[in-house]
Amino acid sequence: MRRCVIIGGAEIARYDKVKSYLRAGDYCVFCDSGLRHREALGLVPDLIVGDFDSHPDPCLPVETITLPREKDDTDTVYAVKEAVKRGFEDFLLLGVVGGRFDHSLGNVAILLYLDALNKRGMIVDDYSEMELISRHAAEVGPEFPYFSLLNISGTARGITLENAKFPLTDAEIRCEYQYGVSNEPLPGKTAHIHLKEGRLLLIRVRGE
């Protein structure tokens, strides 16, 4: 099954970093002002979704879903839901964080939505990649000088973190106390993360 790439309208400054995550054969959905990234990313839309309040409809010979401006779902959330209906299991979201904090936080919550459906999602911005850990273990390789573990839903328990500057054993992280910010893999090592209960947002921060 092809991976679905959702492109939103948040700023992208380091296109070279973001483009390194793209694969041949990705199914690309552009959301409204995300269309401004089309040329720089070198992508051809497979689907365009939006109410076109922040970018004109380019009227391309591409399937386009025009949304009302007053609605419950943002253009990005609608695009993700539409891709889920079409059977996609793996999602990469670009241009969805940065700028307005309310939009950024709402888009991070998409990872919770996808995880609840047992689907994989990752958000990539100019400096980092973000994914939710729940049912699977995760790693942070030495190519990432920093990483953070944040709780954005309930309480995460039974957290084990190995090969990190600040290791954890059977730990707990609650939403109201985010002490998992800015950890580091040990030099030349790959950090390993496991948890028994709950969900954590893993943010891997890329080096220059």
| CATH level 3 topology of the largest domain | Rossmann fold
Name the CATH superfamily classification of the largest domain.
Answer: Thiamin pyrophosphokinase, catalytic domain
**Largest sheet report:** 9 strands, mixed
Distance between the termini: 32 Å
Rg to the nearest angstrom? Answer: 18 Å
CATH class of the largest domain: Alpha Beta
Question: What's the topology here?
Answer:
Elements: E1 4-7, H1 15-19, E2 27-31, H2 38-41, E3 47-50, E4 64-66, H3 75-85, E5 90-94, H4 101-116, E6 120-124, E7 128-133, E8 138-140, E9 146-150, E10 155-162, E11 168-174, E12 191-194, E13 200-205
Parallel strand pairs: 1-2, 1-5, 2-3, 3-4, 5-6
Antiparallel strand pairs: 6-7, 7-13, 8-12, 9-13, 10-11, 10-12
Describe this entry's structure for a reader.
By secondary structure, this protein is of the alpha/beta class. The chain has two domains: 4-126, Thiamin pyrophosphokinase, catalytic domain (Rossmann fold), CATH 3.40.50; 133-205, Sandwich (Jelly Rolls). 17% of the residues lie in helices and 31% in strands. The chain has helices at residues 15-19, 38-41, 75-85, 101-116, and strands at 4-7, 27-31, 47-50, 64-66, 90-94, 120-124, 128-133, 138-140, 146-150, 155-162, 168-174, 191-194, 200-205. The protein has a nine-stranded mixed sheet, covered by helices on one side. The longest helix has 16 residues, at 101-116. The mean pLDDT is 94.
Give a quick set of tags describing it.
single chain; 208 residues; alpha/beta; Jelly Rolls; nine-stranded mixed β-sheet; four-stranded antiparallel β-sheet; 4 helices
